[in-house]
Specification:
Keywords: Signal. Pfam families: Phenol_MetA_deg (PF13557). By secondary structure, the protein is mostly beta strands. The chain has one domain (2-17, 28-347): Porin (Beta Barrel). The chain contains two helices and 18 strands. β17 and β18 form a beta hairpin. The longest helix has 17 residues, at 2-18. It starts with a helix and ends with a strand. Mean pLDDT is 91; it is low at 2-25.
């Protein structure tokens, strides 16, 4: 997967070098078109001109339900062969606040902070000496501010209605990795929750990425590849798996203020290294690091609305729904059903 992402970045550059320059006069990528920003589900997609600010808010809801083992759908009975508890459904809500500032035309600084709420429904199965089973349903919840990310977007090319920039980022472990809640087995006491229910990584991270943008008369599009590497083992003796993402999109300017977009995405997450000694990996699938990470292929449909009136100029509203095309998780995991992103961006 790493080789695929680095190859994608190289292809962006080769594609640019292969473009014919029919117009000798400089023709910059236009930041004020309806589709000049990528679909709202893409982060770090554009840069700004010197002195510009942008503030943004996104709300992302991810719904997960039903079980998958590697590339096959499975049932609760399959889980109970090795675990006492089987996940049934999970919802993650993320509120994302972002700010961007360009101290120069070549450099844009970006900071993002998130507030996350996780809800998971689970079922515990107990079997008595006579072989009779009894199922107990319960839920767990966690919430709080997650890790903060700071990035520098460095513009490499901006000509012939094409742009290319690199991203260099760092993640600061401000989110909790000690979230607790009551479970069906904890006798009314709060216990540490499994890995997917934690709010932060507990580790510093670095992010490297490349984004290519192009524009035509009514169409525009882009492609992005990035990788996120977790640097250190956290205080609970584990380190999250590195993440690799590649995405490409196409947008149509239906009017001067409204655009539609389609997007494809490939996302690969490595397994966790180490383990939290306070978690029993035989109790529930989400407490076993063998059931973390994997490959996900998605497609998405989105819209952008750009206000052209002078009083609201610079304000955008956007929405995107992302659906799975193929899922191959490591081990046993809940299947992703959809991710809905709503957001607003204001540049000044």
């Amino acid at each position: 997967m790493k080789n695929i992402l680095w190859l994608a970045m190289a292809l962006f550059c080769l594609h640019l070098n292969a473009q014919e320059h029919n117009n000798k006069e400089e023709n910059l990528w236009d930041a004020h078109r309806t589709s000049s920003h990528a679909p709202i589900g893409v982060m770090g997609d554009h840069t700004h001109q010197k002195g510009e600010f942008m503030i943004s808010y996104r709300n992302m809801r991810m719904q997960m339900k039903d079980l998958r083992y590697n590339n096959n759908d499975v049932t609760n009975n399959f889980v109970y062969q090795n675990y006492m508890v089987s996940p049934q459904e999970m919802t993650m809500d993320m509120h994302m606040l972002g700010a961007m500032y360009a101290p120069s035309d070549k450099l844009t600084l970006m900071v993002m902070a998130n507030y996350i709420t996780n809800d998971m429904d689970l079922t515990m199965r107990m079997t008595n000496n006579m072989g009779m089973s009894m199922d107990t349903d319960f839920s767990t919840k966690s919430s709080g501010f997650s890790d903060v990310s700071i990035s520098a977007l460095v513009q490499l090319i901006n000509e012939n209605q094409q742009a290319l920039h690199a991203e260099f980022g760092v993640g600061i472990p401000t989110g909790s990795i000690d979230q607790k809640d009551e479970t069906a087995m904890s006798n009314g006491k709060e216990v540490i929750l499994p890995y997917p229910m934690q709010i932060g990584a507990g580790s510093f991270s670095t992010k490297l990425g490349m984004t290519y943008l192009w524009q035509a008369e009514k169409l525009s599009g882009g492609a992005q590849a990035n990788a996120k590497f977790y640097i250190n083992e956290n205080d609970n003796d584990y380190r999250l798996g590195n993440q690799y993402l590649a995405t490409s999109w196409l947008a149509l300017d239906a009017t001067s203020f409204f655009s539609f977009s389609v997007r494809a995405e490939a996302n690969y997450v490595e397994q966790i290294e180490g383990n939290n000694p306070n978690l029993n990996p035989m109790m529930v699938t989400t407490a076993n690091t063998s059931n973390i990470g994997g490959m996900q292929l998605n497609y998405a449909l989105g819209t952008n609305y750009y206000f052209t009136a002078k009083t609201l100029k610079g304000l955008r509203l956007a929405a995107e729904i992302k659906l799975p095309a193929y899922q191959e998780p490591n081990g046993i995991q809940l299947k992703q059903k959809y991710t809905l992103s709503l957001g607003t961006q204001y540049s000044f």
